[in-house]
């Protein structure tokens, strides 16, 4: 992901199985292989998926572009954080699940079913319905977060301006060029 036009190729351990020319000359932001449907979901303009070597745009409620990564939720649904909200994929369709007033860059589901949302202006805790509950941690006030990863009880945040931030419980630690 992260290129203008070109070819998306599918490989086995010994051969190239298929190549799909991406003809629309749009920037591909992220890709996610959905094993349950055997499709490659593509976050771009227009958003869609590759199946059997052919690109299929999602039917949508007017959404023209996606920017973020796709994640699989515990209930099996697919979610994407993007410019003006969180989008869910259902079959061949894409729909706005939670409208936001700021750009969403990344999202992760917590074990309790709530979500942590990284935006251009902070990190927020969302409830199971996608409504913002609070700032996730004070260290993130007015900080752009581009990615969130979870390992064991630690959350890792890739930020602009604060370096890598690691959160464990109520504690936050910064790792930047000075460390």
Structural class of the secondary elements?
mainly beta
Strand order of the largest sheet: 7-11-10-9-8
Integer average pLDDT: 85
Number of β-strand runs:
19
Please give the share of residues in helix: under 10%
Q: If helices are DSSP runs of H or I spanning 4 or more residues, what is the number of helices?
A: 0
SSE order, as H and E? EEEEEEEEEEEEEEEEEEE
Shape: globular
Low-confidence stretches: none
Measured between the Cα atoms of the first and last residue, the distance is 30 Å
Strand content: over 45%
Based on CA atoms alone, the radius of gyration comes out at 17 Å
Largest sheet: 5 strands, mixed
Your description of this structure?
The chain is mostly beta strands and 179 residues long. It contains no helices and 19 strands. The chain has strands at 3-11, 16-28, 30-34, 39-43, 48-51, 54-57, 59-60, 70-72, 78-82, 85-90, 93-99, 104-109, 115-119, 122-126, 132-135, 144-151, 154-160, 164-168, 171-175. It has a 5-stranded mixed β-sheet with strand order 7-11-10-9-8, with no helix packed on it. It has a 4-stranded antiparallel β-sheet with strand order 3-4-5-6, with no helix packed on it. A hairpin with a 2-residue loop joins strand 9 and strand 10 (85-90). It is globular and about 45 Å long. The protein starts with a strand and ends with a strand. The mean pLDDT is 85.
């Amino acid at each position: 992901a992260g290129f203008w036009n070109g070819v998306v190729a599918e490989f086995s351990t010994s051969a190239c199985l298929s190549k799909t020319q991406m003809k629309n000359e749009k920037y591909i932001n992220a890709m996610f292989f959905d094993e349950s449907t055997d499709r490659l979901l593509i976050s771009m303009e227009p958003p869609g998926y590759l199946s059997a070597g052919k690109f299929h745009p999602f039917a949508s409620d007017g959404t023209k572009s996606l920017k973020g990564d796709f994640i699989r939720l515990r209930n099996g649904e697919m979610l994407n954080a993007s410019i003006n909200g969180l989008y869910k994929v259902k079959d061949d369709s894409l729909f706005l699940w939670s409208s936001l007033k700021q750009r969403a860059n990344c999202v992760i589901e917590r074990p309790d079913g709530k979500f942590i949302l990284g935006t251009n202006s902070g990190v927020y805790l969302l409830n199971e319905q996608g409504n913002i509950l609070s700032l996730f941690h004070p260290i993130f006030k007015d900080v752009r977060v581009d990615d969130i990863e979870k390992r064991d009880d630690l959350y890792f945040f890739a930020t602009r301006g604060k370096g890598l931030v690691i959160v464990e419980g109520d504690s936050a630690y910064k790792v930047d060029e000075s460390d």
